[in-house]
Amino acid sequence: MKKLNLMMSDPLVGFTKNALINLPNPCSISLLWNKGFMMSMTLVLQIMTGLDSSMNYVPSTEMAFDSVIQMMRDIDEGWVMRYLHMNGASLFFILMYVHMLRGIYFNSPMKLPMVWGSGVIILLATMGAAFMGYVLPWGQMSFWGATVITSMITAMPYLGMDVTQWLWGNFSVSQPTLNRFFSLHFLIPLVFVALALIHLILLHKTGSSNPKGTNTNYDKLKFYKYYLVKDMTYLVLFMVMMVTLCSMEPNLLGEVENFNTASMTTTPAHIQPEWYFLFAYAILRTIPSKLGGVFAMVAAIVIILVLTLKQLTMNNKLSPVKKSKFWVFLVTAVLLTWIGANPVEPPFVGIGQVLTTIYFTLAMML
User: Which domains are assigned to the chain?
Assistant: First the structure.
């Protein structure tokens, strides 16, 4: 009994108990409020499958592509680890985008500015890790995607070319670039874990939002066991969906060009990043100026930080006008994703410019 009391008095045990067992949560929160939990579980899956894949991956421009093929064909359950990791990244972004859209809809940036700011930093870190991971298989789209995206850094005044060559480790994307991306792809998720803990601590300090938009300590339940069971139920359904995707259509979210090994002498007809970058990529292409395009692409992501500076207003759920603006904004982002997947030619360029204008206008009005 004394040992139990001594253990319970430990600060780490106390923090865990308060964060996972006794944490009070609003009674009115719905399915949309469990995306953070599901993202944390998906992150664990990504780390485990990534670690397993790294044991068979060879970070060499001569052998990277073949090592991935060998992993899937010759290593026991190698194809499972590969497809879980590849599709896990896409599903992680789906969860993250839904998580952030829910926050925008229920005015979380205005209510919880510190939590929202840390979430945006996590989004940027995730995008960096995902981009570098996309390059590692060293397929055609991986190589040319890396070439196009990293070349954007040259648009920076004065230091652009120096920073780009430092990132490349050469005068173009080559072996040193692959080494850097492989190392950073491992290191960024470690930073991501630290940021996620900070995000969680800030959230628990201020408390979760809720659909009603109220801030009360009376209408709440402990996280255990009602919310834990609820989250675990949806986690099981999520894993069933993941296994189904990896078993039935593992390359549904992939790119055909990445089935060919990287070649500096052959350029794909249409270069595009993964689907979760397409909305920002479409905005980049709509600006004729290289520097202006890069600025617009970064602004398309960072602009959601501006929401923390706005005055807290009526919940979108209770305002038909604000609700309409939110849904038009969402449809615009989806259409930009579609534009980014199409070639840079009429009428897609003109449509993209109109959608970009609508996107930034609505982002400032949310």
Answer: 29-208+217-271 (1.20.810.10), 272-366 (1.10.287)
